[in-house]
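DM from R.C. (forwarded with permission)

"hey, sorry to bug you on a friday — could you get me a structure for this? deadline for the figure draft is monday and I only need the backbone to look sensible"
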Amino acid sequence: MKSIFWLRSETKDHERRTPLTPTGAEQILADGHQIFVERCHDRIINDEVYANMGCKLVEAHSWKNAPKEAIILGLKELPDSDEPLTHKHIYFAHAYKGQAGAKELLQRFKKGGGSLYDLEYLIDENNRRVAAFGFWAGFSGAAAAMDSWADLSQGKEFAALKDHENQNEWIQSLKERLSGKIPRVMVVGAKGRCGNGAMTLLNNIGIAATGWDYEETKGGGPFKAIAEHDVFINTALINKKIPPFITEDMLEDEALSIICDVSCDPSGDLNPIPLYDRVGSWLHPLQSKLIAGKIRHILAVDNLPSLLPLESSEDFASQLLPHLRSFAIDNDSPVFRRSLEIFKDYSAKI
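My reply, with the result:
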């Protein structure tokens, strides 16, 4: 069986990543499959590089008119709509944890007969994700938190987020900006992919952060130790309802001034940081709130790996590629089958 992959353009502001690089596309094409790539001026890799590999370029957002058998590949959410979804879609849908709009999205699939293979739920036999941006989310989130600390500690307003050419350039910038001003930082979820990214960044800029994981948090929050740090970075993966990590009343007379929620799921039912209820933007990344007599700043942006778009794309795409090639053979594989079953389970509940 020969498959058709349709790499769609992203619509989310500042989203420059891609789940498929030209190098990966070349391998899929060599397997005998077809790839259509929607033109996208924001994508970190130029359209023509894909074309030079043999992909066919098509107009942005044309996936709606793609052949019925086409597999629509993307990263972030589809634009809001009530149009039925008829294709097989591979992307991060954020539809299984009670998020806003989840029910409506699943209804669109049900109406159109399409299928969702959520990238977050592509898991192996050990229930471990086969492809994830976690390391780069943690790395970029910690770096953005340190950028905000550097500005705020100097009495400056934290500027809008911007992407960086590479990690080395960002690390060097942070070392210079933080010289002589080292905050006390705590990372929860420090041993996971995301937490490893955060701890790596902090180590690279000379900050010996407090790292907590399951052993320190299994007793349930809230945790007073978090409030005793200047910066709290949450990288924990939460799959069930738990007590909050931190509450407003425990911040009285405490130092905590910046909360970076890399996990960033404020509209879901599993949010362990009930201090905010909306996602920030690249233009306005910090939400500043008067809590327990002091202004606290919350950094919660849901596409942090895009701050390092090339490195995060290359890493993620390399993890995903072997599974795409396997799936392309007959639109089935153990990893994709598990994701499809999860989609069917949740769809049956609406």
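R.C.: lifesaver. Residues 316 and 343 are 22 Å apart (CA to CA).
me: no worries. The chain has two domains: 4-121+308-347, 134-307.
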